[in-house]
Amino acid sequence: MWKGACSLVGSQDIWQLIVLVVLILMSAFFSSSETALMSLNKIRLRGMVAKNVPRAKKVQKLVENPSRLLGAILVGNNVVNIGASALATSIAIKQFGNNGVGIATGVMTFIVLVFGEITPKTLAAQHSEKISLKVANLLSLIVFILKPITVVLMKITNMILRLFGGKIGSRQPFVTEEEIKAMINVGHEEGVLEVEEREMIHNVFEFGETKVTDVMTPRTYMVAIDKDSSFEQVVEVFKNQRFSRIPVYEDDIDHIIGVLFLKDLFLSKMEEEPFNIENIIKEPYLTIEYKLTTELFREMRAKGIQMAIVIDEYGGTAGVVTIEDLVEEIVGDIYDESDEILHEIELINEGEYAVLGIVKIDDVNDRIGISIYSEEYDSIGGFVFGLFGRLPEEGESIAHEDITFVVEKVHKNRIEKLKIIRIGAINETISD
To answer: What CATH number was assigned to the domain covering residues 345-431?
Structure first.
């Protein structure tokens, strides 16, 4: 029986076998192309295009329209797989009669899975760039030839998507903010990025979500000069505070009329006219407290402004912000030779911290590892003030959950400095 079956194999059967092999190779081509192009690193692809790598532009053009690309690949892959299965079944029936259907099904399932799917896709995932560049020319031609078919299929698909409430043409960004942050953390763990570099990049992302009220110096900590001050009084303020510019107010700090620059102050002294602060101040630049820092930074940089007065919703002065304050949100604190370096949060002992009252609650949580939440207060000093319900005296303490706050310095109706003691951390140290 087997000899009889083999004798039936003629030149036509050999050609059918050759066509079958070609179809399986085409299946491998489509499978590897799909995996390679869909897993391709888009950032590296842009780099290859910039370096004029051969066929990189064709690859970029293919992935620019993923729906059409995927449609063409799936049409091609299904056509060759179905064609291969049909041809294999035909050959098997000729050789084995009715048993040929079962044999063809089993054999083709194995061949398509191993040689048409798993192997080519695995290789493509490992060498996505190399394979993408190799298949670019042929695949571009196939996409062009199959365009009429894929257009019709996409329209039908879109109609079905609408029926089920799907979004048409919605595309996700090829890289998200969270993915970039994850890559930065991995880069740090692998030693590619230093701690400072990692923190700076993370700060850039946070900068885009930060509001002016989060970075400004509040009005209670502002240094300002009365417009009726004498030259000597103004010089004394500049000497004590060591600022290069100071706001000037009329009557009270809610009425800022200008900003006085140190250089203009000394230039005015060279003139013979009587000193009048209103003649040398610059017009103040006003902004609102809930503006995004990115917007304010863009405005101040474009107009060459170094200081902005922050106005609250009632038109009063909420605080002041400088271009240096904004830059420090990204690069960290900047000091010059004349600055007195004050550590906002300083570790004293295990579980004990000295903290300035002006520090934001979020910053205290991040640095110390606690979870304080308040809708009423932004600063840790304000939060502790709220716990007391009155202005506390220096040396007083109050407990909140497993934390004890000790007031160390009070100035002008506000808590200027305090100590935070984490009871839990101290107990852990003792037990160790």
So the answer is: 3.30.465.10
Instruction: Classify residue 19 by burial, with Cβ atoms within 10 Å: 0-12, 13-18, 19+.
Output: middle
Q: Which pLDDT does position 64 carry in this prediction?
A: 83
pLDDT of 307 reads: 94
- Please say whether the structural domain 212-331 has been given the CATH code 3.30.465.10: no
Give 82-114 pLDDT, tens digit per residue.
Answer: 998 898 888 888 888 888 888 888 888 899 899
> pLDDT tier at 158 (50, 70, 90 boundaries)?
confident
